[in-house]
Design goal:
Layout (H helix, E strand, L loop, with lengths): L13 H17 L13 H5 L23 E2 L5 H4 L7 H4 L4 E3 L9 H8 L3 E6 L5 E9 L1 H14 L1 E2 L7 E6 L2 E6 L4 E7 L5 H15 L6
Antiparallel strand pairs: 1-4, 2-3, 3-4, 4-8, 5-6, 6-7, 7-8
Length: 216
């Protein structure tokens, strides 16, 4: 009786073994969870959380700066001491210029209304042709004058020829000149003020009057 050797196991092709290993590896990776540094699993919600900019929240708007109210002191001046219609070139530029009643408060424009609201002095002159020269002087503290100057920088043209901080603008055919000597707001306006130089003779007298030793 002959003995039979056991048949060796069938050899599986290496291509099949490699493919099976790859399939098992992919399945194992599918079930894994990426770990965060430190060993714990990363939270899916952490990466999906919206940033503050993407949340749609609108920052609260700054209400803005509200300037403090202007601080003024009553100032009653003699109109005759402010402007002499017979002095200098005034008689030539405005023949027959003479004092007139001050305009009613409701007839004042913004520049002169500011003087009136500060309890300042408003005076008026009219010439033979019916042209008016109206002036106003008010007293403010330095902080208020700075605030007024800041507004004028944005709304008027600077005029260096007035000798102090000065401004000029046209409003509906009326020229408005302003100057800011120490502690004062000086305003002069007329339909005859076509440009800053037109108001200069009047401003020169006014600034001399409200300067040191003057009516102001």
């Amino acid at each position: 009786m002959s003995s039979r050797r056991p048949r060796p196991p069938a050899r599986v092709p290496s291509v099949v073994v490699a493919a099976s290993a790859l399939a098992l590896g992919a399945a194992a990776l599918t079930g894994c969870t990426t770990s965060a540094p430190g060993g714990g699993p990363a939270s899916p919600s952490a990466s999906a959380a919206p940033s503050p900019a993407a949340s749609g929240a609108t920052p609260t708007a700054d209400p803005g700066y509200t300037p403090p109210p202007l601080v003024s002191n009553p100032l009653a001046l003699d109109c005759a001491a402010l402007l002499d219609p017979a002095a200098g070139v005034l008689p030539t530029l405005w023949p027959g210029l003479a004092a007139a009643d001050a305009p009613d408060a409701d007839a004042l424009d913004d520049a002169l209304d500011q003087v009136a609201e500060a309890d300042g002095t408003v005076c008026d002159w009219v010439d033979a042709a019916g042209d008016h020269v109206t002036v106003g002087v008010a007293a403010y503290d330095e902080a208020s004058l700075t605030a007024i100057a800041n507004d004028l920088v944005a709304s008027s043209n600077s005029v260096p020829s007035y000798g102090v901080e000065g401004y000029f603008s046209l409003h509906g055919g009326t020229g408005v000149a302003r100057a800011l000597p120490t502690g004062r707001l000086v305003v002069a306006e007329s339909t005859t003020f076509a440009e800053p130089g037109s108001a200069e003779p009047v401003m020169t007298q006014l600034l001399a009057a409200v300067g040191e030793g003057g009516a102001g």
